[in-house]
Amino acid sequence: MKLLKHNLSEKLIINKYLKKLNFKNKGTFDFENDGAYLDFNKKNYKLTVTTDNISEDIDFFSNDDPKSIAQKITTVNLSDIFAMGALPHSYLLNLYLPNYINENWLNLFANQLKKIQNKYGFYLLGGDLSKSNKLIVSSTFFGSIKKKLEIFQNKFDLYDDILITGNIGESKIGLEILKKQISSNINLNQYFIKKYLYPTPCKLGPLIANHVNSMKDISDGLIGDLADMLNDKYGALINVNKIPLSVKTKKILNKNNFRLEDLLNAGDDYGLIIISSQKNRNKIFNIANKNNINVTLIGKIINKKGIHFDSHLDIKNIKKFDHFF
Amino acid sequence: MKLLKHNLSEKLIINKYLKKLNFKNKGTFDFENDGAYLDFNKKNYKLTVTTDNISEDIDFFSNDDPKSIAQKITTVNLSDIFAMGALPHSYLLNLYLPNYINENWLNLFANQLKKIQNKYGFYLLGGDLSKSNKLIVSSTFFGSIKKKLEIFQNKFDLYDDILITGNIGESKIGLEILKKQISSNINLNQYFIKKYLYPTPCKLGPLIANHVNSMKDISDGLIGDLADMLNDKYGALINVNKIPLSVKTKKILNKNNFRLEDLLNAGDDYGLIIISSQKNRNKIFNIANKNNINVTLIGKIINKKGIHFDSHLDIKNIKKFDHFF
Fold first, then answer.
1. How far apart are CA B284 and CA A221, in angstroms?
2. 212-231 of B, contacting A, C-beta below 8 A
């Protein structure tokens, strides 16, 4: 951990809030060195790395519950780790902190991280702290995967299945409710807002890694992420009425001026898009069922580039959610 | 590499400027996946990790040459890797880019990174890009070190040598010249400004790792970093007239209202502080000499906590350079 010991505040942040997150792992030097050793001695396993950040006013609001911000930074990264077919091992945390961050904020933030670390089994390896005018939370996650496995995002064959986990669009509806663009009854509002504030990663990836050709998490909407997976050889045909929507989502679509199209490029669902051979379909469904994870076959790889739908969708009006510009 | 393919600008940044930095390493997936594999198959070696960032208006100015910014982000991290006794292996780059960043900027920045990668032998593993109102460049570096080695920053014995590499204060003088706080003739001005804009890491660390008790790079000034290394058991006695200053620095001290004290807690020199047993002194000097690196014995570990000087220094007026507050 990069720390400036003689500043009470930074010392306090590390000692009081972050140190407990290293789970006494020796390689962290208890955050007293500028660097750390990554103890990774799993024979026949290799290390995966992913890095992602969330920023104030882009991925969250400054007055959001710090628990939600902790949930989001871990989910965006864990989701990538799982999509690579890997299990989380450890992570680095880089915090860019504005003046409004206080001890109460840090306490809630660190406790939520600890809860998530315990749930999935990984520890804080190190990081650094900086002052900033806006809050940015950046993290690098390390995962482990069997050496022989290699999950690409864009390798598959003609007529492969296209599957997705979970339901589409619930996080987006939560955001629209928060922005007062749509509304429903209190119970539904709370349900969807929770989906937006507390997204969870789909842990199916490592369980089916042997049986898939490609995987990617849905972080920029189903269409955007599927488009990222397609290569210059084949395209995708999607069965529109197979796209999984929860009963609650259908209620919203019926009552508001809000269409299926608005959900297909909606932000952060963190389900997985899986592209796999038809012969592995039953294996994947069985593993998913055993783990209480919903998987839906929504289409297949076809011999025509681009994304195609089996019924009319007004997708030219859909603006892709884009974290960058 | 976390990328949003459908945005021309981000695609362009990655394809035109960053892709050449992966040195065709397979585990990077040519930056087309959200994550990467860290190919680290060196038997009897372990992986070290460090992460550090530099920010506009804190560590550099917005109109600084992008080559200087590339130099700084690699040096702050390489310096930590070398201080751990490790050799660089690969790195992640997280760029937070404001609107003023253009193709010319990216070209100069990436070319300087490539030059440094070639010099020290490491490649770009991945990263991510975000939009920001201020430029922040954050990086996570991976290094390799023999498994049996473990370099702490705060483990040593009574009467151990305290050594430092290079000269003290040149980067600080460069900054003061840029801020027009001090001035000299054109040649000296250019010399010191270059020291500030283009700091280099000291590669001695891995060469002497077998012979030291502790090492740390000087990133917050000699006194601040030495204080970070001291534990609750022993202190340091420093021979003031042994502190290495270049002839050029002495000229500045003579001609300006600028004192030795102002240099002892001066920012980024990126030399190493080495604490080692007296019996290894000759070995360390021999290795340093062979590699044309200046090493100076400046003091020893004593049985009295804190930092002490053998002659009077007005250090209570020295404000520690602090990246955080």
1. 57
2. 216-217, 219-220, 224, 227-228
